[in-house]
């Protein structure tokens, strides 16, 4: 059992020394959280808001993206057939792959399946957080996923929960009282300065500047395949930036 039970906001060692039980736990949950299909959750929840509650994605976003998706496949086939000289083959190939991924994530049965699997992952994390309470019972320390030391696993989990809340999934997975340890974890990690600062700024930027500007741009009638992928990227990309920035902030 670790002998240290306190950590300050300035700690920079997010991955404990190899060979320790903390290191094993951090690696385990880093791999688990990194394996989650966040792009599929993001695309699916944007396209199927009926599966979400209190999503932070503007309501007009889904209708506009669907309008572009309706014409995207036809436009790509036409461009491929006509062999437009200004569009290179690598560009068209990339757009086709991106559209295929978005259309796959538009499958509501697939979305429900991966959201069910997400629930099982969060059950595992809820149980792990409960183990920490028993492991450090009676000790005065702030408990995190792998112990009483804040690690990279906590950054990953915090960024993941933040993204799920943004998509309108928090009430389904923890705010309904079904996972109280997860709720407590999310409440505590939001109080850390870096999370308040970075994620708060990203929400403000995303909702007040990035998304409106993205929709103004696509209203200038670019190809529909560009409009669909660009809007999806605008809505989804800021969350990935948050995760990247948080790692840089702590490392």
UniProtKB/TrEMBL annotation:
The keyword Repressor is assigned to this record: no
Family matches, as InterPro entries: Glutathione-S-Trfase_C-like (IPR010987), Glutathione-S-Trfase_C_sf (IPR036282)
Transmembrane segments: 225-246
Classification via SUPFAM superfamilies: GST C-terminal domain-like
Highest taxon of the lineage: Eukaryota
Keyword Ion transport belongs to the record: no
Keywords attached to this entry: Membrane, Transmembrane, Transmembrane helix
Ranges for domain GST C-terminal: 58-225
Pfam families cross-referenced by the UniProt entry: GST_C_2
Family, similarity comment: Belongs to the GST superfamily.
Protein name per its UniProtKB record: Ganglioside induced differentiation associated protein 1 like 1
Organism in which the protein naturally occurs: Chelonoidis abingdonii (Abingdon island giant tortoise)
Originating gene: GDAP1L1
